Amino acid sequence: MLKFIHAADFHMDSAFGALSASQAASRRRESRELGFRLAEYVNSHEIDLVLLAGDLFDSTGAFRETGEQLAAALRRMQAKVFVSPGNHDWYGPGSPWVTVQWPGNVHVFSTGQMTAVDLPEWNLTVHGAAFTGPEQAAGMLTGFVAPSDGRIHVGVLHGEVEPSEARYNPIRKEEIAASGLTYLALGHIHRRTESQTFGTTVCAWPGCPEGRGFDELGEKGFYEGTLSESGQVSLTFIPFARRRYEILEVDVTGRDPRAAVEAALPAETDQDLYRILLTGETSEGGVDAAALTEALAGRFYALEVRDHTRMAEDIWARAGEDSLRGLFLRELRARWDAAGDEAERDMITRAVRFGLAALDHRDLG
C-alpha cells in the first residue's frame, strides 16, 4: 500500500493586500513555513509520494529566499516529490523552478507535454507537465494514454475540466476517462472538490492549503491518499490551514449588536480572519460598526464589521409629517422604493441616517 499526499496552490509571496502591512508580512512568513509544516506531516505519517499540482508560488517573480525555503522544506521530506508548475509559477527563465537548485528527491516537470518518471520500487509511473507561460490553451492531456504495461500510472497537472474558455490547460472528461491513469492530481481550483471518476480514473482538486481572502472561506488543506497494488484509490481530506477566513451574518433586529455577535461566534476565533455582516432592522442611528470592531478586535487575528442593516419601518412612518423631516423622508423613501438593487438601497439608507442625524444635530461618526 503506497501512501501519498496531493496538494496545490500554495501561492507563496501573495500580497495579502487587504491586511495591514505588518499582518501581510506575517502572513507571507507563515506561507513560507507551510512547506516545513508539510514536511513534518509527510515524515511523521510515513508518506511515500507527494504530488504538488502547481501555483506553489504566486508568480514567477517570487523572492529567491522563498524558493530556497521551499527547496529546503522539500529536501526534508522522506518521500518522492513531483511538481507540475501552474499558470502563476510557470516554468521558464527567471522562474524559481529554474533559478533554485532543487533536491534530488524532487522532480519538476518542465515541458507542456506529458512526460513520465518510473518508480520501479512501487511498480508506479508518475506523469506530468508544466505551464511554460501564463496561459496554456492546448490541453496537456489531449492525446495522452498511459501504456498498458502492468504498472500503476498517476498524473499531476494544473488545469480546468470542461472550462468555458481555453486558457488554463483545458481538460475534457473524455480525455481523463481515456488516459489510463489510476489517479489524476489536479490544481488550479482553490475550493476543494470531492473525488470524481471518469472511466476508471479518479481525480480531484484539494483546493488551496491556506485561504488568502474572503473568497476562500473555511477549512483548507490537502488530500492524503492510498494506492493499493491493484490500483484502488482512497482519499481523506486533511485540514491544515493555520488561519481560516470566515463570513458570519448576524441579525441584530431588536437586540444589542455586540451581544448578538458574541452569541453567534464560535468559541475559538483568535487565529482566524472574520468578516461580520450585521443584518436586520435598526433605529435611525444604525450600528456603530467601527466601535464594534474596536471592542471585538482582540478576539480575532483580523476583523471587519459591515453594517448591512435596514431602517426600521416605524422610522419611515414619520414621512407623513408636515415638516422638513417628513419632506426629507418622503423624498428618500421614493428613491428607496425605486432603487434598482440592494447596493443602491444601502446607499440611500446611509443617506437617511446621516440626514436625520444632521436634522437632529446628532453625531453619527
TrEMBL record:
Residues 2-191 form the Calcineurin-like phosphoesterase domain. Keywords: Hydrolase. Coiled coil: none annotated. One of its GO terms (molecular function) is hydrolase activity. CDD domains: MPP_Mre11_N. The keyword Iron does not apply. Gene3D superfamilies: 3.60.21.10. This is Nuclease SbcCD subunit D. It comes from Pusillibacter faecalis.
